[in-house]
Structure formats: structure tokens, C-alpha cells
Specification:
The protein is an alpha+beta fold and 139 residues long. 36% of the residues lie in helices and 14% in strands. It contains five helices and four strands, in the order E-H-E-H-H-H-E-E-H. The chain has a four-stranded mixed sheet.
Length: 139
């Protein structure tokens, strides 16, 4: 019998090395990625296993997203969060325009799980870890 393996999810960090928050998020993702490649932990005395990160490919981007990527991210977080992604934007159309005018208006860090349609703006460690763990929580 053949077993089909689910492809590894791609998680993108839109990163700015000059921002300490972005560097902290990069470190969190690198640690989670390293943990995910280790064998599953043994159950503890209560018989429960520790939640392990799912394997993922980490894609670190210093460039701002493309228009299509921004559209997807806004779909994941909701159009009301446009101003959290693009400085001064009050909606998707304005966010798109501002991104085209100045890519530096894109706020970093932003972590995106393209396969599962989720994104985290900023350095919310608990939400980022939910994204990379074997949890189905919405982010």
C-alpha cells in the first residue's frame, strides 16, 4: 500500500534585521524548525506526549510582499488589519497603493503560513507557536 505524505508547509517570515522584534521572531521560528526535525518526544509519566512542532520550511524574506501576497495576507488577517500591515492604510485598496508607492511602508515582522491560510503580525510568540505546533487553532 502506498502512503501519500502531506507536503511540508512553507512558513514565510517577512523580516527586517534592523528591528529587534523581527530578529526575536526569526529566532523563535528557527528554534521551532529545529525542534520539528527531532524525533517525537516520549510520553511523560501521565502518558501524554508533549506537543511537537510540525515540520515546515522557513522562508525568510527581507523584501516586502508582492501585491498578490499582500492580498492573501489581508485575507488571512482580515481587511480591518490593513493599517497593522501597511503604515497609514485604511483598507485593502489603500494598502495595495501604499505598498506600490513605498515597500518600506510594510510593517515587519509578519509570519505567514501559506498552506493553512494564517498570519501573525508582530512578535506575538504564543500565536506564532500555535501556528507551528500541531494545533488547529485559528491565528
Amino acid at each position: 500500500m502506498f502512503r501519500f505524505h502531506k507536503p511540508i508547509d512553507v512558513i514565510t517570515l517577512f523580516h527586517s534585521p534592523a528591528r529587534p522584534a523581527s530578529s526575536r521572531v526569526l529566532k523563535i521560528l528557527q528554534q521551532a524548525s529545529a525542534e520539528a526535525s527531532e524525533p517525537p518526544p516520549e510520553p511523560d509519566q501521565s502518558g501524554q506526549s508533549k506537543v511537537q512542532s510540525k515540520e515546515f520550511e522557513l522562508n525568510v524574506m527581507e523584501d516586502p510582499p508582492t501585491g498578490d501576497q499582500l492580498r492573501s495576507i489581508l485575507e488571512y488577517v482580515g481587511p480591518r488589519r490593513a493599517g497593522d500591515l501597511i503604515k497609514g492604510a485604511r483598507g485593502e485598496a489603500e494598502a495595495m497603493r501604499k505598498l506600490q508607492e513605498n515597500g518600506e511602508s510594510f510593517v515587519r515582522p509578519v509570519v505567514v503560513d501559506w498552506s493553512n491560510g494564517r498570519a501573525v503580525i508582530g512578535e506575538n510568540e504564543s500565536e506564532i507557536l500555535k501556528m507551528v505546533k500541531n494545533e488547529v487553532a485559528s491565528v
